[in-house]
Amino acid sequence: MRAMLLVNPKATTTNARRRDVLIRALGATVELTVEQTRYRGHAATLAGTARAKGYDVVAVLGGDGTINEAVNGLLNAINGDDAAHLDDPSSGRPALLVIPGGSANVFARALGLPNDPVEATGAVLEALRDGRRRTVGLGQALWEGESRYFTFCSGMGYDAEVVRAVEGLRGSGRKATPTRYVNTALRHYLATDKHHPAMTLAGPGIPAAKGVYMAIISNTSPWTYVGNRPVCPTPWAGFETGLDLLGLQRMGLISMLPVIRQILTERDSLPSGRHLVQLHDEPEFTLTAERPVAFQLDGDYLGERESVTFRSIPNALQVLV
Ligand SMILES: Nc1ncnc2c1ncn2[C@@H]1O[C@H](COP(=O)(O)OP(=O)(O)OP(=O)(O)O)[C@@H](O)[C@H]1O
C-alpha cells in the first residue's frame, strides 16, 4: 500500500518530533512518501498529485485548513474527476487518513479520533492494519463560478465575521486558541449588524426564509469545540446524511442566549426558539444576500459573498478511522 503523508509544519500543534514519530510509525506499515507543505494551497496540489499517481492513501498531519485543502485536491483531480460517475465515487479516490495537528481539529474529532496526536496515531495505525474504513459525504459550496468542498462546516454572517477577525489576529502573530475565538466572538458581537438581516434561504422543496442574519451549514456534528466541550447547533448532522443548517433571524441577546445555552449542552434534539430556521439532511439550498456577507468554510475565511449554493456530495471519500 502506497501512502503520501502531507505535513503542515506551521500548523498550531505540529512539531518535528511528532512528525518523526508518525513517519516511523506509518513507514513501518506502508510504503511512505513524505511531503511538507510550503505555502497556502500546497496540500491541494500534493493531494491531487497523489491521486494522479495512484496512491492508495493520503495522510495529513495538520489542522482543519490543511485537511480541507487535501480533500479539495483529492476531489478536483488534475485530469478531471473520473470517479464522480462511479456508483461509489469514494472507491475511485485515495483514502484519507488524518492526524490532528491544528488548533481545533474538528474533522478528526468528529470522526471520533482522540485530539492527542500520539493517541490518534495509535488509532489510525490500527485502522490501517485492520483496513477499517468509513465512507463520508462532503459539502460543496458554489459561488460566482467558483466552488470548494468542505468537510465539517461553512457559515455566512456573524460566525464568518468572527473567523475573519481571528485570522486577522493570527496574521499579527497570535495563536488561534479556543479562548481567543470566544473573546473575539464576544467583542465582535458589539460590532455586528443586529438590525438589518441580509439573507434569504431557499432551495428545491424548501420554503423561502427571509431575514436571516447568520447561517451555519453543517456536514457533521459537532460544529466546533470550546476546549473539550462540543458545540452542536445542528445535532442531527452526520457524514452519512445531506447538509443541515441553523439560521438565526434575531441577533438580540434575549433571542441568542437560550440558543447558545442549548447548543453548548449535549443533546439530541434540535435547538428550539421562534426565530430559528433549521434544515436537516438536504441535498441543496442557496443563501442569497442583499449586500455582501462574510463567508467561511471549514474555518477558512473566504471573503464577502452575495449568493452561495450549498450541495451535499454523498460517498465522497473513504477515511481510515
Ligand atoms: N509552510 C506553510 N507556511 C505557511 N502557511 C502554510 C504552510 N503550509 C500550509 N499552510 C497554511 O496554513 C493554514 C493553517 O493550517 P492548518 O489548518 O493545518 O493548521 P491550524 O490553523 O493550526 O489548524 P486549525 O485549522 O485547526 O486552526 C492552512 O490554510 C495552510 O494553507
From TrEMBL:
Q: What is this protein called?
A: Diacylglycerol/lipid kinase family protein
One GO MF term, please? kinase activity
- What SMART domains does the annotation carry? DAGKc (SM00046)
Per the UniProt entry, the signal peptide is none
Which UniProt keywords are given for this protein, alphabetically ordered?
Kinase, Transferase
Q: Nucleotide-binding: present as a keyword of the record?
A: no
Organism of derivation: Nonomuraea guangzhouensis
Q: Which residues form the DAGKc domain?
A: 1-145
Alphabetical list of InterPro entries matching this protein: Diacylglycerol_kinase_cat_dom (IPR001206), Lipid_Phosphate_FormReg (IPR050187)
> So what family is this one in?
Belongs to the diacylglycerol/lipid kinase family.
State the EC number(s): 2.7.1.-
Whether Cell membrane counts among this entry's keywords is: no
A family per Pfam:
DAGK_cat
